[in-house]
Design goal:
Length: 301
């Protein structure tokens, strides 16, 4: 594959991922990633069984992946983001001339943009990523991230833009933590809205009971609810509340409104419904969290 075709392929991959994120949010199902993206009368894969992936017919990686954690086991590679806001990504094996290691080295020299797949149960794609440095002594590449609208990569480091790099990396970290929270909550609630039972994952959110910024508003499952987007918005805006006994309560003025079937079936019909909760006791909403949040609903009503 020549450099012009390679560049077009990368842009096609980024556009495809952006479209998937518009559907699924930050975390993209593995089944969708396995399908690959359309390019040049065919489909191109974006991931392989190994962490460094070179598409068929190419010589430079399109993506790198950090393997998902498995209960009771360490990750096969110790990929970490350091205090300098850069990812240390381990070589494939110990042979510095291995095809995949050589490919990442070439990506560094040619300043090519990559995709980084951050495993959070499913996969959180981050792009553009770029190889900033190579350290054969520690068998490690240094990888940075740039804003999605930016072109280039290594110039970010060479310009000494520490604050910009820190902001971008922190923004990615926050989104990854949000994605991890959503993944855990949806698994606990069996991918179903706790109020209306809707099971379309792409339309479900992980709502905080006590919000971010609250002293106890941690991103943990007992402080989360799986809600469809309309009920998430209604919960956040105190249009509906959830009592500590797990009963849904719709605000009185909303119950009195007349505004068509969406209001009638989407909100008013939820009044007095019992909340669906996880099977595991440790995942169920904490009563003290619900009680505090319900008092806020009562005050807003």
């Amino acid at each position: 594959m020549d450099s012009a075709s390679d560049g077009l392929m990368r842009m096609a991959a980024f556009t495809w991922l952006r479209d998937l994120r518009n559907i699924y949010g930050d975390v993209v199902p593995f089944a969708e990633l396995q399908k690959g993206f359309p390019f040049s009368s065919g489909r191109v894969r974006v991931m392989g069984p190994q962490g460094i992936f070179i598409p068929q017919g190419g010589s430079v990686p399109l993506s790198i992946t950090t393997a998902p954690p498995k209960p009771g086991k360490d990750r096969p590679y110790d990929d970490q983001i350091g205090d300098d806001h850069l990812l240390r990504y381990k070589y494939r094996g110990t042979d510095i001339r291995h095809r995949e290691n050589a490919g990442l080295r070439r990506a560094m020299v040619e300043n090519l943009q990559l995709i980084y797949f951050w495993a959070v149960g499913q996969y959180f794609p981050v792009w553009p990523a770029f190889v900033a440095a190579d350290d054969p002594g520690s068998l490690t590449f240094t990888v940075g991230f740039d804003a999605e609208q930016a072109i280039g990569g290594r110039e970010l480091l060479e310009a000494g833009a520490d604050a910009r790099r820190a902001y971008i990396t922190q923004e990615r970290r926050v989104r990854v933590h949000q994605a991890q929270f959503r993944q855990k909550v949806l698994v606990a609630y069996r991918s179903s809205c706790a109020i209306c039972r809707l099971r379309h994952t792409e339309l479900l959110d992980a709502a905080h009971i006590l919000p971010d910024g609250h002293p106890r508003g941690e991103p943990i499952v007992p402080n989360g609810l799986a809600l469809c987007k309309i009920h998430h918005a209604a919960f956040d805006r105190n249009i509906l509340g959830i009592r500590p006994d797990l009963q849904v309560e719709v605000r009185a003025d909303i119950l009195e409104e007349v505004d068509g079937p969406m209001l009638r079936y989407g909100l008013q019909a939820c009044d007095k419904k019992q909340l669906l909760v996880p099977r595991r006791p440790g995942d169920k909403p904490r009563p003290e969290f619900l009680d505090e949040r319900y008092q806020q609903f009562r005050e807003a009503s």
